[in-house]
Amino acid sequence: MIRQHGSPPGHKGIICLIVLFLSITASCAKSSNAPSELIGIWKASDVRYRGTSFEINENAITFLDKNGDRNTYTIVEIKRENMPDKKWVLYTLRYLDSHLKTTEFPFYFRSSKEAMIRFKHQPSLIWKQDPGFVS
């Protein structure tokens, strides 16, 4: 049997698959890390939400309810869109829920002396970052 010089059969296809895999992995990792301005514990001053909070870290979001139950979910994607007023930014966090379904959590963020978040579906409710949070 005479072997020809060069790449073995299928070598180019394997290289293409490896490059594709690395590209997808790199883009997913980049888009699923929360920016530093969002990292922290967020609380509302409204009495209806006393005892509740949510925490965003680099790759997860945790919700704390009034009963003290914590639910942590892995962030799979973060989208950022500047609003026309240039004061607010619309973030949409996509995370895997407890049934491994992708759930969207859209909210407006405003960076100022005291950063704040408003949920897209509850724009009148303001959430502020807990000043006692240490990352």
Write the layout of secondary structure elements.
Layout: H1 11-31, E1 40-44, E2 53-56, E3 60-64, E4 70-82, E5 89-96, E6 102-110, E7 116-119, E8 122-129
Antiparallel strand pairs: 1-2, 1-8, 2-3, 3-4, 4-5, 5-6, 6-7, 7-8
Q: SSE order, as H and E?
A: HEEEEEEEE
What is the tally of helical segments?
Answer: 1
Cα-based radius of gyration, to the nearest Å: 21 Å
The total strand number stands at: 8
Biggest sheet, spatial arrangement of strands: 1-2-3-4-5-6-7-8
Shape: globular
Mean pLDDT: 83
Strand content: 35-45%
Largest sheet: 8 strands, antiparallel, barrel
Structural class, please?
A: alpha+beta
Could you give the distance between the termini?
64 Å
Summarize the structure.
This protein has one domain: Lipocalin (Beta Barrel), CATH 2.40.128. 16% of the residues lie in helices and 41% in strands.
Textual characterization of the structure:
The chain has a single domain, classed as Lipocalin (Beta Barrel). Strand 1 and strand 2 form a beta hairpin. It has 135 residues and is α+β, with helices and mostly antiparallel strands. 11% of the residues are buried. The termini are far apart. Strands 1-2-3-4-5-6-7-8 form an eight-stranded antiparallel beta barrel. The chain contains one helix and eight strands; from the N terminus they run αββββββββ.
